[in-house]
TrEMBL record:
Residues 412-533 form the Integral membrane bound transporter domain. Residues 665-699 form a coiled coil. This is FUSC family membrane protein. Pfam families: FUSC-like, FUSC_2. It is a multi-pass membrane protein. InterPro entries: Memb_transporter_dom, YccS_N.
Length: 754
């Protein structure tokens, strides 16, 4: 019970609920004010304008938010006018629906915020069908009131922003820490769960994508929030937490271990990994608690449990060495030591977050040059040329726009000729359900129908108990607020709440609530069927057909990251910024690749061509990024020896293999080669360098020097890490080259012949 109350408190304090309240207040005030002034007939138009222009009010840059709402107001007004004036003429109306549906849905090429503006435009078109205005004067008055409603919402949004200026950023930071905590716990399971690794890895793909999305939004919100006077203390606090959350995520990524090697080294001695696994779990849970405290503002828990778990992890290294004995224990000990160093760094970043949350005034200042920080922003391109480039059947958005247009025109004509009472409910279902991918459309269709049936059942039971108008009004209003609040969390619940809200809104005007419920359910099912059938039959977009460019980009970013790490090894001080930028780009590329794989899993089985091959390519790409990150992380956090000639030879070999993998996907041929004999010599020399240090250490132990000094330990760690990871990367790049070659023959060449 206590846990449920805590989750309820977190929800009520969340920015999602705040957004629901914001929209609720923006709609309620005009209704109440105009009712008392005697102009209640104007309230619905203002409420429509308010509701229509709220979707683009999402976390991020204030400037982009304001611009999006203003564009949304203008778009909604123009679209509403076009529909209202075209209504009496069926042929003209169909033409207007076609043009609006296609052009407005195509605006989604400009990114997520633009897709929400696009949704507002489509919603305005559908709501216009419910508006009964006959004369030009009535239409113009309605448009003016709608515009007023949109501007009123902008004012309300601004006031809420001033009252709680950092609520959105705090929620994003909280969500980010929560996801990273879950990710860290998932990585802990990978250490020992040998039989469940594939299943766990697929779960990591989802979490990686979600974390990267949160970090991208936070970059926009925090790095563009700088003012000439500098940051406030609170902004400084948020930025410190954000930077530490990125470091934690990157550290976790850097420790995607060679699990086959782990299994080989430890075999039946997996018990020595339990301390590391437990520490990961404890740190993950601690991050989740901190994520909750960002919203609750309660006392930070004691850190002793973290320090105790870290201490036990250190002890497990000594226990392993005592149990197995040197030199046999050396390789396992170095693995455990590298793991310990990484967890120690993780814990330090967690402690940074703790200190910042405990006392804002003691937070250290972050020095980010504007030029440097701007490089970490992923800027959306808004040129007209972007739209022109997507006017092709190769574009997923273009195909989606054509499908959506067909579905809306068909849905309207279907309702028109069958004289369905509220045809616009069918159209509303179509725009809410239809997505560029069939898999997501199918998922939303199921959730929409189930949610609508649940909502209808609840509404029906309430109507059976009471016909009180006050009760209906309260339920309609509160259902809308909760529906908006849950929009990003549970679409099935949203569908149920929206149904309840609509049923009671209509029940206020139509005394026969049972009829309203009946039509609502029937129209939703009709709209859902049209959406899912259209998505399957009309220019369907299957993920496997659009995956090539995502794969190519992931390979290119992997190669760039590898080369940036090579430069970092040569001169960490000069090349760190370039390395960080390359790391950010490859993380985003891998996130997109993971998202693409998730979409593939949602497609029908018959369309998941070479599923296991695609999974192999995605997994190898992910593993390569982690292996490279592991080397980069070691270089940044240790004083290293100069990069060897052999290191550079292997970098060239791996880079060449990645380039060949790219070439395979682009269906080209390449003559680029690296002499295998030179590569083999370089590989052996790196491995021998570690063996040489290992032998020297053995001789030192024989002489009685059992305690190892830090310099020797770091030298052994570096030699072991570099030699093993470079050989591992070489093997992975070769596997990637073979996999992409098979992908070319089984998928790409087949696509070209068709």
């Amino acid at each position: 019970m206590k846990e449920k109350l805590k989750h309820l408190e977190l929800f009520l304090k969340s920015s999602d609920f705040n957004r629901g309240i914001r929209i609720g207040v923006a709609i309620a005030i005009p209704f109440a004010l105009l009712y008392f002034l005697g102009y209640f007939e104007y309230a619905p138009a203002i409420a429509v304008g308010t509701f229509l222009n709220s979707p683009s009010d999402i976390p991020g840059s204030i400037k982009r938010k304001v611009n999006a709402i203003l564009i949304s107001i203008l778009l909604s007004m123009v679209i509403t006018a076009a529909i209202l004036f075209a209504k009496p003429f069926l042929v003209v109306l169909i033409l207007v629906i076609t043009i609006i549906s296609f052009i407005v849905s195509l605006l989604s090429v400009y990114g997520f915020r633009a897709s929400l503006v696009s949704f507002s435009g489509l919603l305005a078109m559908i709501i216009a069908f419910a508006i009964q205005k006959q004369t030009t004067q009535e239409i113009l008055v309605h448009l003016g009131l709608m515009t007023l409603g949109g501007l009123w919402y902008l004012v309300v949004s601004y006031v809420f922003q001033k009252l709680a200026p950092k609520k959105d950023q705090n929620q994003l930071l909280s969500d980010s820490l929560l996801l990273i905590g879950e990710y860290l716990k998932l990585r802990a399971k990978l250490l020992t769960k040998k039989t469940k690794r594939d299943e766990l890895l697929k779960k990591t793909f989802v979490l990686q994508n979600q974390i990267n999305e949160k970090h991208e939004t936070l970059r926009e919100a925090l790095l563009t929030a700088r003012k000439r006077s500098g940051r406030s203390r609170y902004e400084e606090k948020q930025l410190l937490i954000f930077v530490s959350s990125i470091k934690i995520f990157e550290l976790i990524e850097a420790k995607h271990l060679d699990y086959k090697m782990i299994d080989s080294i430890f075999g039946e001695r997996k018990s020595f990994l339990k301390a590391s696994k437990k520490l990961n779990k404890i740190m993950g849970n601690h991050l989740i608690v901190l994520s909750e405290l960002l919203i609750q503002n309660e006392k930070i828990p004691n850190k002793d449990v973290l320090l105790k778990a870290l201490s036990k992890t250190k002890e497990s290294i000594n226990q392993y060495v005592e149990s197995v004995q040197l030199p046999e224990a050396r390789e396992g000990a170095l693995v455990l030591q590298n793991l310990y160093d990484y967890q120690e760094q993780l814990l330090e970043e967690i402690r940074v977050i703790r200190r910042v949350m405990a006392n804002v005034h003691d937070a250290s200042k972050i020095s980010l040059k504007r030029e440097s920080s701007n490089q970490f922003l992923t800027l959306q391109e808004y040129r007209f040329n972007v739209l022109l480039q997507n006017l092709s059947l190769k574009s997923t958005i273009f195909r989606h726009s054509l499908r959506l247009t067909f579905a809306l025109v068909f849905g309207y004509l279907f309702g028109y000729f069958l004289e369905i009472q509220n045809t616009y409910w069918i159209l509303l279902t179509i725009i809410v359900i239809m997505r560029p991918s069939y898999g997501l459309t199918r998922l939303r269709t199921k959730d929409r129908i189930i949610g609508t049936l649940i909502g209808a059942a609840i509404a029906l039971s309430i109507v059976s108990i009471t016909q009180n108008i006050v009760v209906y009004s309260i339920l309609a209003f509160s259902s809308l607020i909760f529906a908006v609040s849950l929009l990003q969390q549970n679409y099935k619940s949203v569908a149920a709440l929206v149904t309840i809200s609509i049923v009671f809104v209509y029940s206020l005007m139509n005394p026969d609530a049972y009829e309203v419920i009946q039509y609502r359910v029937l129209d939703t099912i009709i709209g859902a069927i049209i959406a899912i059938v259209t998505n399957y039959l009309i220019l369907p977009t299957w993920e496997i057909d659009n995956q090539k460019q995502i794969l190519v980009n992931a390979l290119k970013m992997n190669k760039n990251y590898l080369l940036a790490t090579q430069e970092l090894y040569k001169n960490p001080d000069i090349n760190k910024l370039h390395y960080n930028l390359a790391r950010k780009e490859v993380f985003l590329a891998i996130s997109n690749l993971n998202a693409s794989f998730q979409r593939l899993t949602q497609d029908p089985k018959s369309k998941q061509k070479e599923f296991e091959l695609v999974y192999e390519i995605v997994t190898i790409n992910q593993t390569m990024v982690s292996a490279i990150a592991s080397i980069g992380n070691f270089i940044i956090n240790h004083k290293t020896t100069p990069a060897s000639k052999e290191f550079d030879i292997l970098i060239d070999k791996i880079s060449n293999s990645l380039q060949l993998a790219c070439t395979n996907l682009q269906v080209k041929t390449s003559n680029a080669k690296v002499a295998e004999e030179i590569v083999e010599k370089a590989e052996n020399k790196l491995l021998n360098a570690y063996q040489k240090l290992s032998n020297l250490r053995d001789e030192s132990i024989k002489k009685g020097n059992t305690e190892i000094d830090q310099k020797t330990l770091h030298a052994l760690q570096e030699a072991y890490l570099i030699s093993n990871h470079m050989v591992w990367l070489k093997s992975l790049s070769e596997s990637l080259k073979k996999a992409t070659n098979k992908y070319k023959k089984t998928i790409l060449e087949n696509q070209l012949t068709h």
